[in-house]
Design goal:
587 residues, alpha/beta, Alpha-D-Glucose-1,6-Bisphosphate, Chain A, domain 3, TATA-Binding Protein, 3 domains, seven-stranded mixed sheet, seven-stranded antiparallel sheet, 27 strands, 32% helix, globular, binds alpha-D-glucose-1-phosphate-6-vanadate, binds cobalt (II) ion
Length: 587
């Protein structure tokens, strides 16, 4: 168990992005690459005053290629840095929400986790030629805050050695149970416990939702569902809940065996990548109905590689993530977790997420927050009282347009939570002896009351970095010139660069995306992705609000947004900057 000190040299590119460090797998498997990052994290923890010998380190991942090897390396470095209690998910598998749930689980103080390494590049493809990733979560169960990730990055730039317990045995992580490893002299002992991947998270979800009511819905003859886990880690959880607990046939679980390359797919639950599910649900890739040769299920859902994202579909009906957030907020009283705490108190959405939830917040007098992209900004709001002694904003519902939804039950977005939230709401919306109230019925009733925020996102993946950055700079240089400008039928009321002043800890996050706010309430947002493993991804988000009085349910999103899209493409000169105006993905 004696640590060896290994000499190393820094890598210049280990800056954690929106959600951890993501790179091509081949970058991660270079000698010392993973080791440097993990040691830099321990160095930052030491400077932050975390005593890693007091408590437990949790490790798990989404099962992508290199997951198993990385786990063994992290264990050896952790031991050399003084960690003596380690939890690992069975077979190395833990979804991101499960990690958050386990860290937060109340247990004997000496056992409590002080943090976790999550091995995932989320929705990015996996395999030897695709992406790998690592992220550190803190004691509250949430992603490390920016002060810590900035410090980690600073450490990666100066690192000269790392410590590793080279003789520590390779741990068999295929069986749940405890393994004790002691030094020869008997003066040191490390406990490695292999945990069930699902127990803690599923037990938590059971306290949040009305499982018997959901089972009642699933048992109806006129209700059927499918869940596509896209060969990511979610399959383990989906089978546990839907087959073992609710008793559904395993055929309802599409692609539920986790694979280290996600079966060559892109485990991203949207209309483009969840192709198989979208077809089963009788939809095309624009979310419009198409004829289907088979009976179409009443409800469909999909998850991403690490199980924190969700897509919700009804029979031939696509629910946008922004609408999903608003509808869960409007129906929060149907969910016992919120109801038991006196109802939902606040909602938060990332800046590019549509304003649909704002309308619910206004109607129901909820506090509303608009944060930069990335789940870490929601964590402070959730912990405002417990960690910062401020106002309590919980129970809090949060969401992003990128298919992420969740609440303060944990500190990550939670794909399975969102699916169960919808099933719970559908179950609670039924009237005895009446025909099934469908997903489509629920969404349309919502639009009739609140109006509809037509919404679309264009992604330009694999763009050249310099061009993409030049485009963003052009916007930044022209915020004043753009304000007041006429674009076809639209007038820009305000153009700016979004900044966030965290109301809880006072930190300021600059440069969080370009906002073009039109005087009629429509918006166009441009951002560069912070999760691209290589190259640059430009995201363009468009939104147009139609009030209940003016709403025509037959108008399709693309027809409603067409002229706005044209104006946005013109204004951005995107074709000049990155060579194309044709997106790689539309969601
Ligand atoms: C994307 C999404 C963002 C999400 C992040 C992590 O970030 O836009 O909303 O929080 O991915 O999700 P970016 O910087 O590429 O736009 V996950 O499921 O990849 O951990
Ligand atoms: Co994810």
């Amino acid at each position: 168990l004696t640590p060896t000190t290994v000499k190393t040299t820094p890598f210049a590119d280990q800056k954690p992005g929106t959600s951890g460090l993501r790179k091509k797998t081949k970058v991660f498997t270079q000698p010392n690459y993973l080791e440097n990052f993990v040691q830099a994290t321990f160095n930052s923890l030491a400077s932050a005053g975390t005593d890693v010998s007091d408590g437990t380190l949790l490790i798990g991942g989404d099962g992508r290629y290199y997951n198993d090897k990385a786990i063994q390396i992290i264990i050896k470095i952790a031991v050399a840095n003084g960690v003596n209690r380690i939890w690992v998910g069975e077979n190395g598998l833990l979804s991101t929400p499960a990690v958050s749930a386990i860290i937060r689980e109340q247990g004997p103080v000496w056992k409590k986790a002080f943090g976790a390494f999550i091995l995932t590049a989320s929705h990015n493809p996996g395999g030897p030629d695709e992406d790998f990733g690592i992220k550190y979560n803190c004691e509250n169960g949430g992603p490390a805050q920016e002060f810590l990730t900035n410090d980690m990055f600073a450490n990666t730039k100066t690192i000269s050695t790392y410590a590793i317990a080279k003789s520590f045995p390779t741990i068999d992580i295929s069986k749940v149970g405890e393994i004790k490893v002691a030094s020869k002299a008997g003066d040191m002992q490390v406990n490695v416990e292999v945990l069930s991947s699902t127990d803690v998270h599923v037990a938590l979800l059971k306290t949040i939702f009305d499982f018997p009511a959901i089972k009642g819905l699933l048992d109806r003859d006129d209700f059927t569902m499918v869940y596509d886990s896209m060969h990511g880690v979610n399959g383990v959880y989906a089978r546990k809940v839907f087959c073992d607990i609710f008793g559904l046939d395993v055929s309802t679980q599409m692609n539920s065996i986790s694979k280290d390359d996600f079966n060559g797919g892109h485990a991203d639950p949207n209309l483009t990548y969840a192709k198989e599910l979208v077809a089963v649900m009788g939809l095309d890739k624009s979310g419009l109905p198409i004829p289907s040769p088979n009976p179409i299920p009443s409800f469909g859902a999909a998850a991403d590689g690490d199980g924190d994202r969700n897509m919700i579909l009804g029979s031939q009906f696509f629910v946008t993530p922004s609408d999903s957030l608003a509808i869960i907020a409007a129906n929060a009283d149907k969910i016992q977790f919120f109801a038991a705490q006196g109802g939902l108190k606040a909602v938060a959405r990332s800046m590019p997420t549509s304003g649909a939830v704002d309308l619910v917040a206004k109607d129901q007098n909820l506090a509303l927050f608009e944060t930069p992209t990335g789940w870490k900004f929601f964590g402070n709001l959730m912990d405002s009282k417990a960690l910062f002694g401020g106002v309590d904003y919980t129970p809090l519902l949060c969401g992003e347009e990128s298919f992420g939804t969740g609440s303060d039950h944990i500190r990550e977005k939670d794909g399975l939570w969102a699916v169960l939230a919808w099933l719970n709401i559908i179950a609670a919306s039924q009237k005895k002896g009446k025909p099934l109230v469908t997903v489509e019925d629920i969404v349309k009733a919502h639009w009739k009351k609140y109006g509809r925020n037509y919404y679309v996102r264009y992604d330009y993946e694999g763009a050249e970095k310099a061009g993409a950055q030049a485009m963003m700079k052009m916007f930044a240089d022209n915020t004043e010139a753009n304000t007041g400008k006429t674009c076809g039928a639209y007038t820009i009321g305000k153009a700016d660069i979004f900044e966030y002043n965290d109301p809880v800890d006072g930190s300021l996050s600059l440069n969080q995306g370009v906002r073009i706010l039109f005087s009629d309430g429509s918006r166009v947002i441009f951002r560069l992705s912070g999760t691209a493993g290589s190259g640059a991804t430009v995201r363009m988000y468009l939104e147009k609000y139609v009030s209940p009085e003016a709403l025509d349910l037959n108008v399709l999103p693309m027809d409603c947004l067409k002229d706005l899209i044209e104006e946005a493409l013109k204004l951005s000169k995107i074709k000049e900057f990155i060579g194309t105006d044709v997106p790689t993905v539309i969601t």
